[in-house]
């Protein structure tokens, strides 16, 4: 019968769809087909006309077409004055937020694809003039457009495949697990994110881990050192597997020289400080590694800096390796 997926785009940049096209496969349609996934419609990938889409939506609402997974990309735009008329589905004069509510009511599973759909994200930043929110969250507050008590027909709340953009593997793996009936409430973390990636930290597998261990910190963006102390990196707090599940098989933000801004979490878009700076109190970063008491961090940092090898200290403040590791015979050592 196949696992029917309907993908609609709400208020966002389309970056999650662009990311999806970078899935690690030479044949994206074949990847879906081999997993029993049938893409009913996608705004960028489907050839169907507008009338075809509207007919599909009516068939879904009437029960003639089954929706196994409703994927929403982008935040729900509720303005002005909660009318939703800032975003009408083309050709219908009906606000997208109303279409989302109706379709969510008949879908077996509902997925918020990306942090805009999950929490509001970048679309809800600043003064939020469009009154953007997530499907079941408004930043850290549960509720959103569908409400705190929403539960899809399959028994799950909204599945928040959060990220900005979300990793293509997170989307594909979630859909595959749902299609195989191998995904339930125990596979979601407290924020409704799939645990297969949210139980990891961006820090795991970070290429700058040696510098982190010795607290050998970068002083400017081009330095090789750890970006946590001075450059705003939140990789020790961010829930994602970005450095072990590489983007395009080769990269991550940190591998590209950019600090992690914790884009899988609610509120990341408005941290209260410049993204490239680390807020400190008495010289100590305010945002410490997950589960690490401040006293332990201070003690560890002091010891680590005292033990920092000259090679690590010099390389951390350079844009290239100045001193390579010393070659020596390690037998019986």
| Tally of DSSP β-strands | 13
CATH topology category name of the largest domain: Rossmann fold
Instruction: Give the biggest beta sheet.
Output: 5 strands, parallel
CATH class of the largest domain: Alpha Beta
Count of the domains: 2
**Low-confidence runs of at least 5 consecutive residues:** none
Shape: elongated
CATH superfamily of the largest domain: NADH:ubiquinone oxidoreductase-like, 20kDa subunit
Structural class comes to alpha/beta
**Percentage beta strand:** 5-15%
Strand order of the largest sheet: 2-1-3-7-11
Properties at a glance:
24% helix; Cytochrome-c3 Hydrogenase, Chain A, domain 2; two-stranded antiparallel ribbon; 5-stranded parallel β-sheet; 333 residues; Rossmann fold; 2 domains; alpha/beta; 10 helices
Summarize the structure.
The chain is α/β, with parallel strands linked by helices and 333 residues long.
Textual characterization of the structure:
The protein is α/β, with parallel strands linked by helices and 333 residues long. It has two domains: 3-197, NADH:ubiquinone oxidoreductase-like, 20kDa subunit (Rossmann fold, 3-Layer(aba) Sandwich), CATH 3.40.50.700; 200-321, Cytochrome-c3 Hydrogenase, Chain A, domain 2. Helices cover 24% and strands 12% of the residues. It has ten helices and 13 strands. The chain has helices at 15-20, 28-34, 50-62, 96-104, 115-119, 168-179, 195-198, 209-213, 294-306, 310-316, and strands spanning 3-9, 37-41, 69-73, 76-77, 88-89, 94-95, 109-113, 132-133, 137-138, 141-142, 159-161, 280-281, 284-285. The strands form five sheets. Strands 2-1-3-7-11 form a five-stranded parallel β-sheet. Strands 4-8 form a two-stranded antiparallel ribbon. The radius of gyration is 22 Å and the shape is elongated. The N and C termini lie far apart (61 Å).
